[in-house]
């Protein structure tokens, strides 16, 4: 999970300007957080360039953290690892990202 603290990419993109295969300039996004209708901005972001060529993106900026740390931990089973993550979050510490690897992935 690489989106815990800052959310998914779609949550941080406010506006996209793109050009379709037909040469039409299109703009997706709205000032309103919950604009009515289909979420075409999310569709454009999720398409990863398959629907149009993106020429401009407006993103939400977040302050750089004062401190960054990396922690590596090993657990006997997945449940113990999951419990440790739950305990960390319950303590009010929201990791920027988490990654779980099983034995075959680390061999």
What's the arrangement of secondary structure elements?
Layout: H1 9-12, E1 13-19, E2 25-29, H2 40-46, E3 53-59, H3 78-90, H4 103-106
Antiparallel strand pairs: 1-2, 1-3
Keywords:
107 residues, three-stranded antiparallel beta sheet, elongated
Shape: elongated
* Distance between the ends: 21 Å
Which structural class should the secondary elements be placed in? Answer: alpha+beta
In percent, how helical is the residue content? 25-40%
H/E element order: HEEHEHH
Main beta-sheet annotation = 3 strands, antiparallel
Number of helices: 4
The beta-strand count equals 3
- Beta-strand content: 15-25%
- Quaternary status: single chain
Mean pLDDT: 84
Q: Any low-confidence stretches, pLDDT <50, length ≥5?
A: none
Radius of gyration: 19 Å
Give me the side-by-side strand order of the main sheet: 2-1-3
């Amino acid at each position: 999970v690489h989106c815990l603290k800052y959310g998914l990419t779609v949550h941080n993109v406010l506006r996209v300007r793109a050009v379709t295969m037909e040469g039409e300039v299109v703009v997706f996004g709205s000032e309103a957080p919950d604009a009515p209708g289909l979420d075409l901005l999310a569709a454009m972001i999720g398409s990863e360039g398959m629907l149009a060529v993106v020429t401009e993106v407006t993103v939400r900026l977040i302050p750089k953290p004062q401190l960054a740390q990396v922690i590596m931990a090993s657990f006997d089973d997945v449940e113990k690892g999951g419990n440790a993550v739950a305990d960390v979050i319950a303590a009010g510490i929201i990791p920027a990202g988490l990654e779980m690897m099983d034995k075959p992935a680390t061999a």
